[in-house]
Amino acid sequence: MTEDKKPQVPSQLEGETHDDVFGEIREDGPNFRNVGFWGTVILMMKTQIGLGVLAIPSALDVLGMVPGIICMIVIGAITTWSGYIVGEFKMKHRETYSIDDAGSIMFGVAGRLFLSAAFCLYYIFNSGSAILSLSIGLNAVSSHATCTAVFVSVAAIVGFALSSIRTLGRITWLACLGWFAVYSFRWYSNLPSALNSFLDTDPVVIMVTIAVGLEDRPAAAPASDSPWVSDWKVVGDSGFAETIAAVSNLLFAFSGTPGFFSIVSEMRNPRQYGAAVITCQAGVTLVYTIVGCVMYYYCGSYVSSPALGSAGGVIEIVSYGFALPGLFVTMTIVTHIPAKFIFIHLLRGSRHLTSNTPTHWITWFSCTFGITVVAWIIASTIPVFDDLVSLIGALLGPVMCMQPMGAMWLYDNWGNADRRTASQPRWFLMVAWCSLIIVLGFFLMVAGTYGSVMSIVQSYSSSGGSAAFSCANNSS
After folding, report:
1. Taking the domains of the chain in order of start, what are their residue ranges?
2. How many Å apart are CA 89 and CA 108, to the nearest integer?
3. Choosing a second label site near 415 at 20 to 30 A (CA), which of 35, 223, 270, 474?
4. What is the tens place of the pLDDT at every residue in 169-191?
5. Per-residue model confidence as pLDDT tens digits over 267-296
6. Contact 337/261 with Cβ under 8 angstroms?
7. Residue 83 Ramachandran class (φ > 0 left, ψ -120 to 50 alpha, else beta)
8. Cross-strand pairs, 23
9. What is the pTM of this model?
């Protein structure tokens, strides 16, 4: 092929010095466009799997094995489509950095304000659940060496320090280092490389999954001389509030989609985004199905939440010990994303965004510190893992990973549809699909929030209303 016939690569995809979001990329400043294909997959998987997988077995206990698997696959398919639409919208609107930019394009100032608030709240609550998970892990590893409120504060302080790393490219290396510590026991090294990439998401959960199958009985089951027989159910028999709260848990497990906007914005080549989404979601769904089914099958109604406590004893201590680096990475990501969101919106269009000025650093540390403090308060006031996860999934999950994506497709395809396109069955089906996604999101939000609030009220009642900022051991 001669030089003049080589395919031309758009300057905004590779090798550019100017970006529609970050402006001029300077040599003396941070490179915000330095995430490759596998780095993208890793960040997406870590955004999805870090916390959500820990609540799946208990959700199956409420729903039953068959309805739970069906709900998991349906939610996985919907969020895969949503994630793909994020990339399509980004390629058509290059100035989009986050979900609120999409809201501004579609609905103006009102759309930006609403989705900005929802986005920040969603990730702040995620950061709070990460802090709570870390406090549970620190309690388990240390056999409750000190007050739980102290562990919550320690997790918040370390999370603030790690989330203050400025670029996702460097956080990718942090994630890899955390996984390297975990993979000192990489028992599946002879598996096919594709399956290895799936299991690379959270091997500690895989280890606990194997352990519950090898032990005589789950940790929470009553001691008895008779052989343990799991009481797992094909179909659950719980009430409406418990059922919809469990569905919200599953939705939370797949609700990393809003973070994909930020990730694709920092990719070196956004054209690879679609393949990265499919790779991520395939791995996530596979891990969720295996972990959820195996743990629930062996533990039945005595499955723990977070799931790492299901094996109990030494296995619980070891599993949390290996999991702590990964949980810290998860907290780093879910704290970094909203902090970066606010940071960019404050400095966008100024030289301080990509230059190492005092204004740059003061603004950046203020963002990460503010997010961490609010997340610490949430973790201290809603100290029950299942309740917090369910509330996030119900109240903020639909508006973050379902409804806006339906609206984005309608925005890009409704007004531009000519008479021939509008008469095609595919166009009608897509309009119906997007409308269904938006309506379904409203139902899950209202019903799921009701179920989650009822569960929180019940939790406070059972603890005498003294659970907030408690010193009690939350790992038992």
Report:
1. 31-220+231-462
2. 16
3. 270
4. 777 666 665 555 444 434 333 33
5. 888 888 989 999 999 988 988 898 888 888
6. no
7. alpha
8. 19
9. 0.76
